[in-house]
Amino acid sequence: MSTLLDRLPARWRAARVLQGGDARWDTAEAVERDGALLLAAPSDHGPSLLVLGDPVAAGRLLTSVVDGRAAHDGPLSRAGFVDRARWLSMVRGTVPTLATLAVLGLEPFSTWDWLAADRSPAPHPGEGAVTRLDPHRDAAAIRACLADANPGTSADPTAHGEAGWWGVPGPDGLRGVVGASLRGGGDVPVSWHLHGLGVRPEARGAGTGSALTTAVLRAGLREGAQFVSLGMYADNDRARRIYTRLGFRTEAELASYGPAGADRPAP
């Protein structure tokens, strides 16, 4: 997101949720108004939208941009809007109107939090079982584990920009896996974003997820990431306790809206 940050006022350049954004936002249209920021990134399936800042101002800004969608010089038009958006994530505390969602072709999907950590965690007793995987050679094993452990993820070990994948081997395949993508652009990525964390049902409750997260957080900071981030569903209290113990802090509270029938977040 380095290209985008160069175009934003200083207050937004300091937001780690933007510093740790992926490359889709580099060409996004940006509108700032009354303490809120709206980004509209073009894609083949309509713009992806991100709205941050003061919740009340964010709601007004989204409504204004959607109401002005027909203007040829408006941000939605410049981002390629035709008849629907691809995805919308916005700060919680305001809810888009039904009319706005109808225009965008979206409906409520999830509430989630964006967390980040910038300090190496204390050693975890299960870290010794975590091994770094080869995203290509081990792709089939990673996908098999994800299909059982985290079927709703859109993470892919062979996707562009992966920092790496880690797993805990077991007698019948991987017991759990996690990946991380490079974020922030430039010659040296600003951060790593943890994704695809999954532990097979029979292996849960033994600290495997904590060990995987600890190992990736430590690896990211050791390899030069300024921070490591992740997203989690807002009602996952058990995961929140684990992440908090490892040093992650909530930096953005968001709600997402996707197309009807969506069963996973847009990649």
Automatic annotation (TrEMBL):
GO terms for molecular function: acyltransferase activity, transferring groups other than amino-acyl groups. Keywords: Acyltransferase, Transferase. The keyword Transferase applies. InterPro entries: Acyl_CoA_acyltransferase (IPR016181), GNAT_dom (IPR000182). The keyword Plastid does not apply. It comes from the Bacteria. Pfam families: Acetyltransf_1 (PF00583). Residues 129-267 form the N-acetyltransferase domain. This is N-acetyltransferase domain-containing protein.
